[in-house]
Amino acid sequence: MSFDREYSVNKTLTKDMVHKKLSGVCGGIAKHYNLPRVAVRVGAIVSLLMFPVATGVAYLVATLLMPTKS
Length: 70
Prior knowledge:
The chain is mainly alpha-helical. It contains three helices and no strands. 51% of the residues lie in helices and 0% in strands.
């Protein structure tokens, strides 16, 4: 028994290298979730001010682990 998943969307989270400011993480997240890039970047800055260590580590990990769009 096999399932034909025609309705499935094969969408992966990748860094946005066209609209990047530092490494493209915020741009890639915004593109994946269909959000404005500015809103994601402002959220990242606010998060960095409130939780600097956790946000910094998360951003560095995302930079290293997120693939670039090929």
